[in-house]
Amino acid sequence: MELQPVFETINLKKFGGEVTTQVRTETKTDVLSDNVRKVLGVSAFSGVQEESHVGGQIKFSGKIIYYVSYVDSDGALKKNECGSEFVGNIESESIKENCQIKLSVEVEKTEPDVNGARLSLISTLSVKAELYECEEVVALSGGNDIIINTDEREIVKSYGVKKGVYPLEEEFELGYSVAEVLSHKARAVITAVQCGVGCIIVDGEVYLTALLLQSGEKSDIIREDRSLPFRMEIECEEAMPTMFATATVSEKSFKTDIAVDGDSGKSIVTVSVSLQFEGEAYSTEILSVANDAFSTQEDLQTTFGECGYYKPCEPRTFSEKVSGRAETEELPVSARYMVTDDEKVEIVSSVCTENGLKVTGVVSLNAYLRSENEDFSIRLQTPFECLLALSPSENCTVQVKGVVTKSRVRMISLTTAEIEADVNFTVCQSQNCSIKYIKEVKSIGEKPVCECAISVYIPTEGEELWSLAKRLNVCPDALIATNKDLQFPLSGKERIVIYRQK
């Protein structure tokens, strides 16, 4: 009978790597340079609004919004809000036509420029694209006169990226009168992701920070922090509670309004945030994949293939306090720290240890100071190291992202400051898995036929059923049927009887 192998198609999702690019932007404000004595701080918010990819190229466009606080020529504290659009592209051979792309943008640095007629803001944006590919693997699953040995492998099936927008609005009262909002910022953090019936459920918090200039003679700069919980349900028809999911969130828009009651001297703050979500639901599937094959009638030549695939894990979050000292230029004797703003966390390394995940990095922030009624700012940074209570699985890729929710600065000396920050770490893990399979099988000749009706064999110590059946050229089920007392692995003292019908 002609050899007739049967193959099945297995769909796998692979991580195709990351590609990055930088975009430089210049935004002119409506503030005359001659009216700027010094810039105290610049906080920037950016996001990608449109993207497309064709033939090895990703094209994108977005918007960047700035909140600038400065001292004008009369010594008064002022603020300016402005924005501009940006465009860019990423080219790489890794960008395939059918790949899935997750695009993110981050403002690396912003420098104010007062050399022109108007105050300009020059920024460097880092744009990162994560690439995911779908690959079809054609693997041997059986056939006429082909006996296969299989391994059970666990893979995950994705139901595609689903998107959603969540509007969030909150109002709170302050016990003082606000003259100006110098800066404000929103940072969204996901704390849990799970699947519901027909949806992906994302829980988290939005951390709000506003630098407010108080009305009155003192005109103190006051920092207000608030956290708003959220629960977003992203529509996904295939999702069920037995599945698991991953999700990301970014701030799409952010607005703060202040209303001051002249009679009570109190202020009402209204915050509006729009969050952009991307979620992906996964189910776990157990596949039986052939790892070896033989025929009782013919000698076979098998060709193996191997394919890596992406297996994500649910994200984990950790809240930690980090601290350290920062060196500064010598400050005036009368200087005092008022508030902090524009905190950033740079992750330098994440190493798995027997006690947990050791994360090292740098926290930087903008510190506002006052000295004899003169306001100024300095940039401070300190290294940190912390241990997260997490033991990643073997062959895991770990990505750590940190967000500062609150920070404090204390003066140690005129040249030294101590920084303390509350950091929310999000750890995303994915396992680097692979499947080895038989991609081709063909006959290289007929096997000689044994003329004996009955044969007796002495096995090798430690031999398993599959290796024994293949060596004896017998179907494993037939071998067990005629030798029911066998227990594997074998001791080497058994007698194996093979019956052949004549």
Provide structural commentary.
The model has no long low-confidence stretch (mean pLDDT 90). The strands form seven sheets. Strands 13, 14, 18 and 19 form a four-stranded antiparallel beta sheet that branches. Helix content is 3%, strand content 75%. It has two helices and 21 strands. The two termini are 18 Å apart.
Describe this protein with a few key phrases.
2 helices, elongated, mainly beta, 502 residues, four-stranded antiparallel beta sheet, 3% helix, three-stranded antiparallel beta sheet
Question: What is the terminal-to-terminal distance?
Answer: 18 Å
Number of helices: 2
Structural class: mainly beta
Unreliable sequence segments: none
Total beta strand runs = 21
Approximate shape: elongated
Question: Into which percentage range does the β-strand content fall?
Answer: over 45%
Report the radius of gyration as a whole number of Å: 32 Å
Mean pLDDT: 90
Encode the helix/strand succession as letters: EEEEEEEEEEEEEEEEEEEEHHE
Bin the helical content.
Answer: under 10%
Work out the oligomeric state of the chains in this entry: single chain
Largest sheet: 4 strands, antiparallel
Short description:
The protein is built from two helices and 21 strands. By secondary structure, it is mostly beta strands. The mean pLDDT is 90.
